[in-house]
Structures are given as C-alpha cells and as structure tokens.
C-alpha cells in the first residue's frame, strides 16, 4: 500500500497540469493511524466533488464495545461520528481556494433524526469507515498541487483525529448516544407490549422554532400528559419515565386553531424515527409502520382499488382498478389510504388541514340536498371503524372544524394552549345526549359499545364493504408491475432475468441515469417520482437512496408484472440488508449521501412513478 509520502510526491509531480491528471491519485494511502482512500476523482473543479473515505482501525478509534455490540447502538454511534466529522469538515472547508468547488470538504449533515447512513460504518471490532466529499483545488482547470497537499495531508488528517479518534470526552459522548438508543428501543418494545401506537414523554418539547427549522422552540411549554392517559415505562438507563400513551384504535386530536393540534401530530409522524438528545422529542415514539396520509392534487395513481371510498362514477369508470395521471384531492387520498394498507401500515395519521373535505366527511344538510345515490364518495368517517375492527388499523386524526368523527372515536385529546387534555368522557356525555335526541347514527366508538355496534346496520355495512380494500391488492400490484416493466424495457412484462440466479439478478441493460431533486423526488431513466407530499421523508439522502433502489428494481426486472409490490419491496430491502450500501451503486462502490428509508417510502416512490 502506498503511503502519505507517496501521495505527497504524486501531488508534486502533477502540479500545474490539466485537471484530469488528478485521476492518477486514485487508490488507498497509509497515513499511519488511518488510511485514506481516494475512490473517485471529479472530472473538473466545477463538477460534483471527489469521493473519499478514511478507515480508522478499532484500536485507534477508541470506540467502547458497548457502542457497537448491537445494531441500534451501532447506528446511534455512527450517527454521532458523522455529526462530529461534519462539524470538523465545516471548519476546514474552503480553507484553500480556487475555481469551482476547490477546497470543499463535507459529508452528510444530519437533521435531528438518527438514520442509518452510507457516510459511516462501524465494524464489529470498532474500526470506522467515514465517507466524505472533497473538491480538489485548481485555478481554472489547472491543478494547484500545493493547495491539494494542504487539504489532503493537513486539513483532512486533523478532521479525522478530532472526530474519529475518541478521547475520554468523545467516548463518553458515544456511550451516551448508545444509552439513549437503548432507551428508545425499550420505549418501542413497551409500546408493542401495551398496545400503544404512540408515546410522548412528559417534558418533551414538541414545537419547532419555525416552519423551516427542526430546532426546538426556545421557551416552549414542555409536554405534560393527561392523568387518564399517563403510562409509566421502565427504561434501562433513564429509569421510570412517564408520558402519554395513545392506545390502538381511533384517536382524535381536537382544539382551537394555533393550540398545538398539528404540532402534536407532526411530532407523532416524525416519531417513527429516533431523535438525538437535545431535540426535545427524543422520547416521542410512534409505531414504525405509521403513515401520514393527505390529499395530493395532481398525483399519479396506478391501478388502485378505490371502490371502498369512491364508486359509481358518472362516466362509468371502474374504480376497482383506478388509474389517472392527475388525481383530485379526494381520489388521491383514497388511493393513498389503500396504498398504505398494502405497504403494511398499522397506523394512519391524518390532519384535517391537509385532507380533502369531501373525502373525510359529508354532513346531513348536504345529504338532504344531494341524495346519496348521486354522490360517488363514501367519506372516510364511514370507513374508519371498519379499518380498525376488521383490519386492526389504528388512526390518529386532527380535527378542528368537524365533529363528525366523535361518534366513531375511542379517545379524544383536546389541545389547549399546547396542553393536552383527555376529554373522552366529556365527549361521551355530549354524544349520549345527542343519541337520545336522535341526531347521529349508532356506530361503535364513543357513541355506543362494541356489542351494540355489531348489531348496527351502519357499522355492519361499513365493515363488509371495507373488506374490498385489501382483496385486490395483489392483482393491483401485478398490474402496476406489468405497466412499469413494459415502459422500462420496451417489452411486455416477463418473468426471469438475464443470467438467472438468485436475489436481485443481473441487469438486462445499461444502467439507468439517476437524477436527484433533494427531498422533493428524483428521476430514474424516463421515470419521475414526485415525493414533495410524502411527509415522513425527512432527509434528502433518503430520497437519494430511494432513487437508487428504484433504479435497482427496474434494472433487475423485479417489476416484471408477475409479483406483488410487497414482494418487490421485500426483495429490494433483502438485497440492501445482505449486500450493504454497495447494492445501491451501479458500479459496486459506496459513497456518502444515502440514508436508509422505510419500506413504506419505497412503496410510495414506486406508486408515484410517472
């Protein structure tokens, strides 16, 4: 292996030559305490930065065994090291100048969520691989070897030493990150045991400093759970922790405007991820399968059975296999609901503010004016009990202007000046009076008991009709797969892949070109995916990983029209788990810039391809 001195000599030999001469630097160099790998060199100083990595042996990194002996602890420690290196790289970046991206040093820059990232991997023996980008210096397109030597031989080694070679303080920080990961894992385990879809610890800070910032709001009122919903969890490091437990079933969050309803729901939708200490939401946890649903005017829909919600269209179109390039708000929300069930969501999160009104409710006055036989939309309020009672799918809804969901709810939380209050019994009393007055139908939930509901014709009809939500999911997936397969290959969908074999198989054609659009979406070949309203994607690196997963799915013929979409998604994640980040590179290498998405986000991306 070459050494840092060899690198120094190579740099001196290419000074003032044309920029392509930098490509001769590719390779691995021994710096003594660590190795520097120059994996990919940019074509010119204005192109995407070069891809580099450092490898620090376990006996040099100083990582305690307790920070890497379990997957959840290892992910938390990797996250910590990425943050440390990102901070040091920001200090060193552009200390040498030049044209274009000359002097840039950077790696992933995480938000408050703890995600598995390609930027850092820790081996079982404590060795650390940290991947980053660097803009090799030039003036015009002429190499500045002196500046490059300072960057590669001085600035980067300092970043490595300060970020990845842990002193006592660094080891304590790593241990605290691992202990928080233990506690977060314990919270999620306790939730499953107690039948909870969410937990919000007392003292959590839910409001953010602004709509464009993930930082906690300074001076915000800490969360306090209602006594009737308070649960106590025993955590391995923090001990007894109290907070609000939201039980499985149908939960409403109500209250006046600006009182914290949507703030609570946003904390829940992002509670599918663990958060770093100091975020304020580090002990806010939600069922990992939870999906936030909303109206998405203009989204593409591929062969979705929306008949449980929309039927008998005036133009006679079959809603059991509905496709459109430009869905309305209600149609898109109906499709997203069915797609969420297909993706395995056990909890649905819905905010009235971002929903299509005619999909959610239909009041009695409107029914009196427009007869039911002339309205093709069966509102969600008529189906939500069936989703829970027949399919075990819970729902947390924010409602601010309609009381239509009160009769079908199991519990009601009122947010009053960011204070949570359990008003279930008060709502129950109001509904009892209304029931005597005959002003609402008898359905299960707060209005009547489950036994009474089983005899009610309304609940029975809703449950029976809702079975079709899942009955055609497999055939829908096969139709979608065949459609995308024909478009990606120019041939009818078919089983099998060139080269045969197991797993993802061998690509049948040249690699499809991938373009990322940040968190908003991506393109793969001739396909586009608009992810702007997939709200639980929290990091652009997740979108980048989704783009590569879709590329892999298309190139390897997984969408061949013969397998359900669930099988396609499961296979993609199996390959990722077995082969690691290299599986998402068309050339078998690994770079920073990817973060692991949830399987349901891959479902969402495939469903939105156009």
How would you describe this structure to a colleague?
- With 610 residues, this protein is α+β, with helices and mostly antiparallel strands.
- Helices cover 35% and strands 18% of the residues.
- The protein contains 18 helices and 26 strands.
- The strands form seven sheets. Strands 1, 2, 3, 4, 5, 6 and 7 form a seven-stranded mixed β-sheet that branches. It has a six-stranded mixed β-sheet with strand order 17-20-21-15-22-23, with helices on both faces. Strands 13-14-10-16 form a four-stranded antiparallel β-sheet, with helices on both faces.
- 49% of the residues are buried.
- The model is unreliable at 448-473 and 490-509 (pLDDT under 50).
End-to-end distance, in Å? 48 Å
The main pleated sheet reads as: 7 strands, mixed
Q: Considering DSSP H and I runs of 4 or more, what fraction of the residues is helical? A: 25-40%
Strand content: 15-25%
Q: Roughly what is the average pLDDT, rounded to an integer?
A: 89
Structural class: alpha+beta
* 3D shape: globular
Low-confidence residue ranges: 448-473, 490-509
- What is the tally of helical segments? 18
What is the strand tally? Answer: 26
Task: Please state the CA-atom Rg, rounded to the nearest Å.
Answer: 27 Å
Which tags fit this structure?
about 600 residues, alpha+beta, about 35% helix, 6-stranded mixed β-sheet, 26 strands
Brief account:
The chain is an alpha+beta fold and 610 residues long. The chain is built from 18 helices and 26 strands. The strands form 7 sheets. Strands 1, 2, 3, 4, 5, 6 and 7 form a 7-stranded mixed β-sheet that branches.
């Amino acid at each position: 292996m070459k050494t840092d001195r060899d690198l120094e000599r190579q740099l001196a030999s290419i000074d003032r030559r044309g920029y392509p001469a930098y490509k001769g630097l590719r390779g691995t160099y021994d710096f003594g305490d660590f190795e520097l790998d120059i994996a990919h060199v940019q074509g010119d100083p204005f192109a995407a930065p070069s891809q580099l990595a450092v490898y620090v042996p376990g006996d040099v990194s100083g990582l305690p065994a307790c920070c890497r002996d379990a997957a959840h602890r290892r992910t938390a420690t990797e996250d910590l090291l990425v943050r440390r290196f990102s901070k040091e790289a920001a200090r060193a970046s552009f200390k040498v100048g030049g044209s274009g991206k000359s002097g840039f040093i950077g790696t992933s820059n995480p938000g408050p969520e703890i995600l598995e990232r390609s930027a850092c991997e820790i081996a079982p023996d404590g060795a650390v691989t940290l991947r980053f980008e660097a803009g090799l210096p030039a003036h015009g397109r002429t190499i500045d070897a002196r500046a490059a030597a300072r960057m590669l031989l001085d600035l980067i080694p300092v970043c490595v030493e300060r970020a990845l070679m842990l002193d006592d303080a660094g080891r304590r920080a790593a241990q605290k990150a691992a202990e928080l990961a233990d506690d977060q894992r314990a919270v999620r385990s306790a939730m499953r045991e107690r039948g909870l879809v969410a937990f919000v610890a007392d003292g959590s800070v839910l409001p953010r400093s602004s709509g464009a910032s993930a930082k906690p709001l300074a001076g915000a009122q800490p969360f306090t759970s209602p006594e009737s919903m308070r649960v106590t969890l025993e955590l391995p490091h923090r001990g007894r922790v109290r907070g609000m437990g939201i039980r499985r079933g149908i939960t409403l969050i109500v209250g006046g405007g600006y009182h914290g309803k949507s703030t609570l729901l946003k904390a829940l939708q992002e509670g599918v991820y663990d958060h770093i200490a100091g975020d304020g939401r580090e002990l806010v946890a939600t069922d990992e399968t939870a999906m936030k649903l909303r109206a998405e005017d203009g989204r593409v829909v591929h062969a979705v059975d929306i008949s449980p919600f929309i039927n008998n269209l005036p133009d006679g179109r079959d809603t059991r296999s509905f496709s459109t390039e430009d869905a309305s708000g209600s149609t898109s929300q109906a499709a997203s609901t069915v797609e969420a069930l297909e993706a395995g969501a056990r909890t649905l999160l819905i905010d009235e503010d971002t929903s299509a009104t005619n999909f959610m409710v239909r009041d009695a006055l409107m029914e009196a004016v427009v007869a039911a036989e002339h309205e093709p939309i069966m509102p969600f309020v008529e189906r939500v009990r069936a989703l829970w009672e027949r399919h075990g799918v819970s729902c947390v809804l924010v409602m601010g202007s309609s009381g239509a969901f009160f009769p079908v709810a199991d519990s009601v939380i009122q947010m009053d000046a960011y204070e949570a209050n359990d008003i279930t019994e008060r709502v129950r009393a109001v509904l009892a009076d209304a029931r005597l007055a005959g002003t609402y139908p008898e359905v299960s939930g707060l209005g009547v008991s489950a036994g009474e509901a089983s005899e009610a014709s309304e609940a029975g009809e809703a449950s029976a009709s809702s079975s079709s939500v899942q009955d055609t999911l497999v055939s829908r997936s096969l139709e979608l797969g065949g459609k995308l397969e024909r478009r990606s290959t120019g041939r009818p969908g078919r089983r099998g892949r060139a080269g045969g074999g197991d797993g993802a198989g061998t690509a049948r054609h040249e690699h499809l070109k991938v373009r990322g659009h940040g968190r908003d979406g991506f393109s793969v070949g001739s396909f586009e995916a608009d992810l702007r309203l997939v709200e639980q994607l929290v990091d652009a690196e997740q979108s980048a990983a989704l783009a590569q997963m879709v590329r892999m799915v298309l190139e390897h013929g997984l969408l061949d029209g013969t397998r359900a979409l669930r099988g396609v998604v499961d296979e993609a994640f199996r390959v990722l788990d077995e082969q690691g980040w290299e599986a998402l590179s068309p050339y078998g290498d690994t770079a920073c810039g990817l973060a692991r998405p949830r399987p349901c986000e891959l479902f969402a991306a495939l469903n939105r391809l156009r």
